[in-house]
């Protein structure tokens, strides 16, 4: 009997060890390839909002393209910045990135510190969870952190003082979770989710448009000429299909002198007014003689299908 007990105990320990190794392996892969963070400012609104939880993937600098939203270490203060890549250049084998926020009100120009070296880049934004980061923003305040610490201490004291008088067991809770009511609720929620995904394909106006609100030429502190185009992006197709990429080409006398990209990582329904920076290959004093063409990609997030359309801005 004792030997059988030892075998069962050994099997349980082995199973626990396997589970722990599996969890540790997944955690290591996630830690080495991804970063989960949250947005603290409004510089990327309305594309990404203050309080959004974002997932950042570590990438090789060579894999970063114009239009990508990257996270990098600020050259002027010890913070991380999430902005869009306006232009890329290579100097002596090192890549440099010119960046800008999407918010036309707070970030009308490219970032004032100019070109960012590849060694400052942390990664590229690949996904976001809307407003979930508000919880972390709340605890950015010193008083909120103190309250959280105090709550933790009180919980520890509560369980520590109650340990001698009663035993806490989660077995009833697990039995309840396995009950028929909970299983029925799970199935109901899954059906509701499937129904939502299917019906969202049929709601909407099935229209989209991209229009220029304004355009202006600026000169950076480093002497680079760039064009800032303020776009009105309307996407009212349905809740699973939307505009997700706009390629902008600046033409002067039949020659392309600038290229920019705005893109978004999630489907949206409505209108967004964004500010896109485009580095120019030559100095210009005004926008009178230039023409701007755009290639708009409409992406179906449910099926993965997409279509491209061209328009003049």
Describe this structure in words.
This protein is α+β, with helices and mostly antiparallel strands and 313 residues long. It has 3 domains: 36-129, Umud Fragment, subunit A, CATH 2.10.109.10; 169-199; 207-312, Immunoglobulin-like (Sandwich), CATH 2.60.40. It has 5 helices and 14 strands. It has helices at 2-33, 134-138, 142-162, 171-177, 180-199; strands at residues 34-38, 53-57, 69-73, 80-91, 94-100, 116-117, 121-129, 207-219, 225-236, 241-252, 255-263, 270-279, 290-300, 306-312. The strands form 3 sheets. A 7-stranded antiparallel β-sheet has the order 1-2-7-3-4-5-6. Strands 11-10-13-14 form a 4-stranded antiparallel β-sheet, with no helix packed on it. It has a 3-stranded antiparallel β-sheet with strand order 8-9-12, with no helix packed on it. A hairpin with a 2-residue loop joins β10 and β11 (255-263). The longest helix has 32 residues, at 2-33. The N and C termini lie far apart (82 Å). The mean pLDDT is 84.
Number of helices: 5
Q: What overall geometry do the principal axes of the alpha carbons give?
A: globular
Q: How much beta, percentage-wise?
A: 35-45%
The averaged pLDDT comes out at 84
| Coarse structural class | alpha+beta
* Helix/strand order: HEEEEEEEHHHHEEEEEEE
Main sheet specs? 7 strands, antiparallel
CATH topology of the largest domain: Immunoglobulin-like
Q: Could you give the count of β-strands?
A: 14
Total tally of structural domains: 3
Whole-angstrom Rg: 26 Å
Name of the CATH architecture of the largest domain: Sandwich
Q: Unreliable stretches, pLDDT < 50, 5 or more residues?
A: none
Strand order of the largest sheet: 1-2-7-3-4-5-6
Distance from N terminus to C terminus (CA atoms, Å) equals: 82 Å
Just give the CATH class of the largest domain.
Mainly Beta
**Helicity level:** 25-40%
